[in-house]
Design brief:
Elements: H1 37-47, H2 56-60, E1 66-68, E2 74-76, H3 87-90, H4 99-107, E3 122-128, H5 133-136, H6 142-152, E4 158-164, E5 172-177, H7 180-185, H8 200-205, E6 210-214, H9 216-228, H10 230-235, E7 236-242, H11 250-259, H12 262-265, E8 267-274, E9 280-285, E10 290-292, H13 305-316, E11 334-337, E12 355-359, H14 362-373, E13 377-382, H15 384-389, H16 392-411, H17 431-443, H18 445-448, H19 453-460, H20 463-494
Helix pairs in contact: 6-14, 13-19, 16-17
The structure holds flavin-adenine dinucleotide and iron/sulfur cluster (3 copies).
Amino acid sequence: MSNRAFNILDDEHSLRAPSPFLEPARWPPNESREQPRALRGLAQIVDGGLCHRCGSCVGICPTGVLGLSDQEYPQIQNLSACTDCDLCVKVCPGDEFDYERIAQEQFGTSLDITDTHGVYQQAVLSYATHPTLREHSTSGGLVTGILLDLLERGEIDGAVVISSDEEHLWKGKPIIARTKEAILSATKSKYAISPTNSVFKEILEIPGRYALVGLPCQIHGYHKAAELDDRLKERIVLTIGLFCHAAIEHEAFEIIWESLGQKASKATRFISRVGKHPGAPHIELEDGTLYPVYFGNHSGFRPSSMEMINILYRLYTPPRCLTCFDALAEFADISVGDPWMAPPGDDIDFLHGYSFGLLRTARGKEIYERAVRDDKLVSYNLTDKEARQCNKKMATEKKWRAFRVIETQRRQGKSLPAYGDPLRTFPRHAGVQFLETEGNMFTHMLCFLPKYRASVLRFFLGEGGYALLWLNNKRRRVKFWLRDTFAALKRRLYGRK
Ligand SMILES: Cc1cc2nc3c(=O)[nH]c(=O)nc-3n(C[C@H](O)[C@H](O)[C@H](O)COP(=O)(O)OP(=O)(O)OC[C@H]3O[C@@H](n4cnc5c(N)ncnc54)[C@H](O)[C@@H]3O)c2cc1C
Ligand code: SF4
Ligand code: SF4
Ligand code: SF4
């Protein structure tokens, strides 16, 4: 019997990627030779909605056949150079990622796919000691602090990070940062889809030692690429995974940019989070001043980056992100995210920025601890219980949503990502988990009905949306006030624990 309360996946085309790869117009003109079998396979992956735009296929192609489309899908740019070697298909983590096998290789143990946090040796809260880094980082600067330490020690020649595109400032641009300045200027999360692993090409061309910062799917792509080419295994000495609820389709940022009107043409930089945790997005103008991206004409309440990102996720989560269940970068050496937990106490100025880190491998732990000894990072160990509360909500939502979407797509005969055994079935929802997942699916309805979402986003960027966000903010303040008051009362009655 079906366990669906309603079905929002039935629209015939709803889950399909925009299919840029297969569009005949995108195949280069004057190419009369038969299209190689591997490229047909890659086209099926993209057309089947399995491409999460990690860039691995572009980065591993030995003959430079593939480039990137405007939306960051792989695109054929030099068909005649294709040798049909199949590397681009074999590397693709969107199509297949063997959770069990890679977990055994990396950690020597199986992973429970319903476990939100994966394998780790130690969980920490941390911030960078560099005089301006903590303030200019996304969370607390753990990621950049480690990269700087490795570079200063001469243990890496560069780090794979995401800088900003010069033309579309909101867009991420994967680069290898080889200087302290370049690493420092690439802080801050870029929430738009960014094909990080396309820089494998440069790593393969230029010998050296590198650290890779990537989203969970990009770390999956790294593992597959390293199996296919030993040079990547040797040259990438550390992987730092960022937690990820989802990346956001470019269209959302185009609409946001349009909402800035004249101000957008004067922008020199887009900064995803400015101010105390979690901060709010701003643009830097030609004269160096910062202007808020959302509701710059309002004084008083202004939504935080997280409030707006919550809306963007409901509208613009890409198709493949809906079938992705690695939330906390389970296959990285070190995984980093925001400390979404109750403020840990008066002695820690939580809102000034902390990164939450999971030190997963021995190599990750050693490098982190050395950065602490080198005075690059301030570190607080968390207990297992504390760590497992942090980001639990996001990761649980993401996992169970993915199980639900995959099983629905299976019934519908659509393309499915293979996570090891291609016949694997995923846990079935029951009880409270069932209700929560269906509620979550409902809020993502417009991801499956993309033609309506632009109007909804424009509404949220207007006065009506502002009023709703204002009301939601008041509701949350009351909720937090009640939480803190009860916590204080409990402390007074039972003593601090
Ligand atoms: C798309 C996306 C979704 C995220 N979702 C969550 C979430 O749901 N919950 C959560 O707790 N944390 C999430 N994060 C992680 C969080 O935003 C911070 O990146 C993380 O806490 C690290 O902070 P930091 O101060 O230590 O990093 P910083 O010192 O600021 O360094 C960040 C590093 O990440 C690189 N980077 C930026 N954008 C990208 C990108 N798109 N792909 C690869 N590398 C990138 C930068 O170049 C820089 O090197 C997300 C990040 C991204 C990019
Ligand atoms: S390797 Fe990455 S970018 Fe290439 S098709 Fe697969 S998911 Fe898409
Ligand atoms: S990786 Fe091989 S099969 Fe794929 S595009 Fe490049 S040359 Fe062709
Ligand atoms: S949700 Fe998964 S597929 Fe999407 S960007 Fe994040 S890690 Fe990649």
